[in-house]
Amino acid sequence: IQRKFSSSPYEVYFPRNSAMEWQPHSPNCDVCHTSCQGIKRKKQPPNLQLAKRLKIIAERARKNRCVKNQGKLNNKNLMKKITNCKKIHLSTKLLAVDYPVDFVKAISCQICEHILSDPVETTCRHLFCRTCILKCLKVMGSYCPSCLYPCFPTDLVTPVKSFLNILDSLTLRCPVKECDEEILLGKYGQHLSSHKELKGKEIYTHINKGGRPRQHLLSLTRRAQKHRLRELKLQVKTFAEKEEGGDIKAVCMTLFLLALRSKNEHRQADELEAIMQGRGSGLHPAVCLAIRVNTFLSCSQYHKMYRTVKAVTGRQIFQPLHALRTAEKALLPGYHPFEWKPLLKNVSANTEVGIIDGLSGLPHSVDDYPIDTIAKRFRYDAALVSALMDMEEDILEGMKTHDLDDYLNGPFTVVVKESCDGMGDVSEKHGCGPAVPEKAVRFSFTVMTVTITHGNTNVRIFEEVKPNSELCCKPLCLMLADESDHETLTAILSPLIAEREAMKNSVLLLEMGGILRTFKFIFRGTGYDEKLVREVEGLEASGSTYICTLCDATRLEASQNLVLHSITRSHTENLERYEVWRSNPYHESVDELRDRVKGVSAKPFIETVPSIDALHCDIGNAAEFYKIFQFEIGEVYKNSDASKEERKRWQSALDKHLRKKMNLKPI
C-alpha cells in the first residue's frame, strides 16, 4: 500500500499495469510511522478520520468484488442457457478417475463446463465445444467468452492431435443404470449403441460417435453431409409423399423458415420467403444487365463488382454473368418464334438468329474491293419481331381502349421509320485495336404506328409519342466505316435492304397475347440527313450544281425561283438515270450526259422518302431569318447597292442585339 498526497492525504491505490509487489513489514514502515533507527513507536492517539476512511474503502472493495462475481456468474448462466447442451454433452462427473481440478478444467468447455465435444481452439488459446462457441458468438457477439478477445467463427481451429488423443483416452463411467462398466471417451458411442434395449438412448448419446472428434455439419463435405442426414432425409421424404404430394423442397424450406422465425431472424426469413415465392432476394437479372450496360461496365468489371458485393454483404444482390447472358437472350432479336407467308426470298426460315457479322456472306476474291471494317447487325425480320414483342402490352392496351379485343388475328399494319447516320469520331485514344476506320455508321429503325382496318376505317392502336427518342430507336446495324465510303456502305447495308424488300411482299405470323396474329409492314426511309440521302440515292455531293435532293433544280434555277417548288425525284427514277449514266446510250459528252441524269453518279441502293428533317429545316430557317433581319436593319429596300462594310455593320448590330436583349449566341 502506498500513500499519495496529490488528491487526498490517505488515498490507497494499486498499480494499473503491473502486479502489486508485497513487501514484508519492516522497521522503516511509512504506514505505521516506525522510525528507521528501530526505536519503539510511541503510542499515538487513534486517527478516527483515517480509520473511517479505510473502513469505507474496504466496504467499497468488498461490494465491487461481489458485483463483479455476480456479473460473471450471471454471464456464465446466460451462456449455459444459450448453449442448452446438457442432453448432448457429457458431464465431468462421469469421469471414472479423480483427476486434479486444473486438469478437469483443461479438458472441459469454458462455456458449458462439460467434457469437450468436437473441441475447437480460439486465437487466444481457449478451448470450447464447437456448438457452444458458435451459438455464443451468434448471440453474444464476436468475442471470446473467457477473455473478451475478438473472435470470429472463421478463426476457430482444431486443437493439436496430442491433446485430442488425451481427450479420447479419458476413462468414463457408463451413465446407464445397472451398467458399471468403465470405457474410454473415444469408444463411448460404440459402447452406448450396445444398449439396444434402452428406450431413451438419445438422452445419453454423446455427439462424438467415431474415434476422431466429430466435425460440425456445415464443415463436412457434401457427401459426408448426405451420409449423416440420411435417416432424416428418408423421414422427410416419407412425410412429403404422405402429406405434400412429394414436394420435399417445400417441406425442407418451410422447416428452415420456421427455425429462423423462432430465433427472431426475420430478415433472413423474409429473404428465404421471397426465394420460395420466386421473387428472389437479389436484383432481377434484366435489372443487373441494365445496370451493367448503362454504367459502361465490361464483363470482367461487372464480375469483380458482383464478387465484392457478395463477399462484403454475404448476400447475392447482383446476379452472376451467366444469368445476365440468359436474360440478354430474351431481350435480343432471335428469341421469339415467327413465320412468314410466303417465305422471304433469299432469307433463311430459321428464327433463332441473334447478332451476326455484318460482313458474312460477302464474296472474297483478289479483285474485290478490300473491306477493312468491323460490322455487327441483326437480321431485319428478327429485329422487327423483337421490337413488336417489346410493345406487346401497348398494342393489346390500344386494342382494349378501342374495344377491339375481339379483333383477333389482323392484319395489323406497321409503319417503320428507317434512320441511318454517321456517328463521327470513334477512334481509340489508348491501346491498339484492329486497323479499322475511325468513324462509325449506325442503321436503325423506329416503329411509328400500328393500325387495324376495322370495317371501312383505319384505327390507330399504337403511336410512338417520342419518335425521335433514342429509347424507341432500335439499332439494326453498326459498322466502323466512313459514311462517305460508298463501296463499304453498299456492301454492308445491301443484305439489310434485300431483307426489307422481301418483307414488303410478305405477311408476318407472330403469336401475341396467346393468339397468332398477322402483320404487314410499310417502310419509310425518312431518318437520313442530306449527306446520306445523296450517298444512298447515288447523287453527287452537296457541292454539286444540282442543289436539291427533292427536285432537279440547279443553283441558278433555285435562286431565280424561291417560291414555287415540287418534289420530282424518286428512287426508281434515280435507278433509271444511273443506268443511263453507266451505259451512255445516246453517246453524249460528259456535260451533256450529266445534264441528262441530273447529278446521279452512283447506283442508288436505299430507297428514301423525299423529305427534309426538322433539324435542317430549323437551321435553314434560322439562316434565312438572320439574313432578313440584317436587311431590315440596313433598310435594303431603300438602298440595294450597299457596300460590304455597311453589310458588316448591319450584322454586328444584329449580333449585339441578340447577345444583350435575347441572350443568344449569334452562331
TrEMBL record:
Q: In this protein, which residues make up the domain named NBD?
A: 210-277
Self-association and partners: Homodimer. Component of the RAG complex composed of core components RAG1 and RAG2, and associated component HMGB1 or HMGB2. Interacts with DCAF1, leading to recruitment of the CUL4A-RBX1-DDB1-DCAF1/VPRBP complex to ubiquitinate proteins and limit error-prone repair during V(D)J recombination.
Family that this chain belongs to: Belongs to the RAG1 family.
Q: Which GO terms describe its cellular component?
A: DNA recombinase complex; endodeoxyribonuclease complex; nucleoplasm
The record's listing under Pfam families reads:
RAG1, RAG1_DNA-bd, RAG1_imp_bd, RAG1_pre-RNase_H, RAG1_RNase_H, RAG1_ZnC2, RAG1_ZnH2, zf-C3HC4
Q: Recall the GO molecular function terms of this protein's record.
A: double-stranded DNA endonuclease activity; histone binding; protein homodimerization activity; sequence-specific DNA binding; ubiquitin protein ligase activity; zinc ion binding
* UniProt-listed Gene3D superfamilies: 6.10.140.510, Classic Zinc Finger, Zinc/RING finger domain, C3HC4 (zinc finger)
Q: Which organism is it from?
A: Paleosuchus palpebrosus
Domain named RAG1-type is located at: 170-199
* Physiological role: Catalytic component of the RAG complex, a multiprotein complex that mediates the DNA cleavage phase during V(D)J recombination. V(D)J recombination assembles a diverse repertoire of immunoglobulin and T-cell receptor genes in developing B and T-lymphocytes through rearrangement of different V (variable), in some cases D (diversity), and J (joining) gene segments. In the RAG complex, RAG1 mediates the DNA-binding to the conserved recombination signal sequences (RSS) and catalyzes the DNA cleavage activities by introducing a double-strand break between the RSS and the adjacent coding segment.
Subcellular location as annotated: Nucleus
What would be the name of the gene that encodes this protein?
RAG1
Please name the SUPFAM superfamilies in this protein's record: beta-beta-alpha zinc fingers (SSF57667), RING/U-box (SSF57850)
Where does this protein bind DNA? Answer: 210-277
**What does it catalyze?**
S-ubiquitinyl-[E2 ubiquitin-conjugating enzyme]-L-cysteine + [acceptor protein]-L-lysine = [E2 ubiquitin-conjugating enzyme]-L-cysteine + N(6)-ubiquitinyl-[acceptor protein]-L-lysine
Q: What is this protein called?
A: V(D)J recombination-activating protein 1
Q: How does the entry describe the domains?
A: The NBD (nonamer binding) DNA-binding domain mediates the specific binding to the nonamer RSS motif by forming a tightly interwoven homodimer that binds and synapses 2 nonamer elements, with each NBD making contact with both DNA molecules. Each RSS is composed of well-conserved heptamer (consensus 5'-CACAGTG-3') and nonamer (consensus 5'-ACAAAAACC-3') sequences separated by a spacer of either 12 bp or 23 bp.
Task: List residues of the RING-type domain.
Answer: 109-147
Name the keywords, alphabetized: Chromatin regulator, DNA recombination, DNA-binding, Endonuclease, Hydrolase, Isopeptide bond, Metal-binding, Multifunctional enzyme, Nuclease, Nucleus, Transferase, Ubl conjugation, Ubl conjugation pathway, Zinc, Zinc-finger
InterPro entries noted in UniProt: RAG1, RAG1_DNA-bd, RAG1_imp-bd, RAG1_pre-RNase_H, RAG1_RNase_H, RAG1_ZnC2, RAG1_Znf, RAG1_ZnH2
UniProt-listed Enzyme Commission number(s): 2.3.2.27, 3.1.-.-
